[in-house]
Design a protein that fits this description.
Elements (H helix, E strand, L loop, with lengths): L9 H16 L4 H22 L10 H13 L4 H20 L26 H8 L7 H16 L3 H5 L6 E2 L4 E5 L5 E5 L2 H13 L29 H14 L8 H14 L4 H8 L4 H7 L4 H11 L15
Antiparallel strand pairs: 1-2, 2-3
């Protein structure tokens, strides 16, 4: 059953208000805003099929939302993906309720799908090193891709943070980059020597990516990573690049930009970095989030324990000799 709304402007006005709320009040990145809008557009398309006629999302009731969740399940989407889309719908209705556009929130009592506790895939050190060597350094795209991989693995950037990098964010001589994270929070983080070198080499060939770029007046930023048409690379393109190297490298498992972020954190922890430093690098507001990303391999943990603890090897504790 359709719901009554106090919003005379219809769905375009409601979505427009929500979009403005995400940007101005919550400080969401453009990537996050696009994700919310994509989820709500998917919800709107479902409602049209479900009701048999165009039906704005802000007129859906609890039965429609439950049917949408069931539809996501039937589409064989992962539970995490379905719950993310449900979360977008919840946030939309919560906003409309708070703004007084709706009298009550139809999504408030809709339960999420149960999800198994899974850690993100992380690459073993040998595989991570091999991945860095896969791009063809005789091609412009390969040189660019090497720089992308080195930054993702070397500094653990989110894919949205990577594509948002501009030339003005680089401090190559100091091996630092300025990153705008979630909530538009800026942080300055180090990059590896190999990443710095890869960026320098890429910038020597980058003019080749500008051959097909149309001149646009008023361009405010100079994107670091560009596509073949000279525009800023998108997050989807970065994921496709990783899938390409996953295939040509004959990896026996799937990985994503987020996997490289988890890999960076895990390898730093295994190398002796402390959690606080990793937290600052990744831009986590909570240390508990960092701990979830840095589950050390138990074999490595056992080896460190055996090497470090005075009782692990059955040896007697060494004592200082009296002089």
């Amino acid at each position: 059953m359709a719901r009554k709304t106090k919003d005379p402007g219809g769905i375009n006005k409601s979505l427009g208000k929500f979009k403005t709320h995400l940007r101005d009040e919550r400080g969401a990145s453009e990537h996050t805003v696009r994700a919310y809008m994509s989820d709500l557009n998917d919800f709107e398309k479902f409602l049209t099929r479900w009701s048999g006629s165009p039906m704005p999302p802000d007129k859906a009731d609890a039965a429609a939302i439950r049917s949408y969740l069931a539809d996501l399940y039937r589409r064989d989407l992962q539970a995490t993906t379905a719950n993310r889309r449900l979360s977008s719908v919840r946030n939309f209705f919560r906003f409309l309720r708070r703004e007084g556009i709706l009298d009550n929130d139809p999504a408030a009592d809709i339960p999420s799908l149960k999800t198994p506790h899974q850690l993100p895939t992380h690459l073993p050190v040998d595989d991570a090193v091999r991945l860095m060597e896969l791009p063809d350094m005789k091609s412009e795209e390969g040189i660019r891709d090497r720089a992308i991989l080195e930054i993702l693995y070397g500094s653990g950037l989110r894919v949205g943070e990577l594509v948002a990098l501009d030339d003005s964010d680089l401090f190559i001589s100091e091996r630092l980059i300025k990153v705008q994270g979630k909530g538009k929070k800026e942080r300055v983080i180090p990059i590896s020597k190999k990443a710095a070198k890869a960026i320098e080499v890429y910038r020597t060939v980058r003019p080749g990516f500008l051959r097909n770029k149309s001149n646009k007046s008023g361009e405010k930023a100079s994107p670091l990573f560009r596509n073949s048409r000279g525009g800023r690379l998108t997050t989807d393109r970065i994921r496709n690049i990783l899938r390409h190297y996953e295939k040509i490298g004959n990896f026996q498992y799937h990985f994503t930009p987020h996997s490289l972020r988890h890999t960076a954190a895990t390898h730093l922890l295994e190398g002796g970095a402390n959690l606080r430093s990793i937290q600052e690098l990744l831009g986590h507001s909570s240390l508990s989030t960092t701990q979830r990303y840095t589950q050390v391999d138990f074999t490595h943990m056992q080896a460190v324990y055996d090497e470090s603890h005075p009782r692990a090897r059955g040896n007697k504790r060494r004592t200082l000799k009296n002089k």
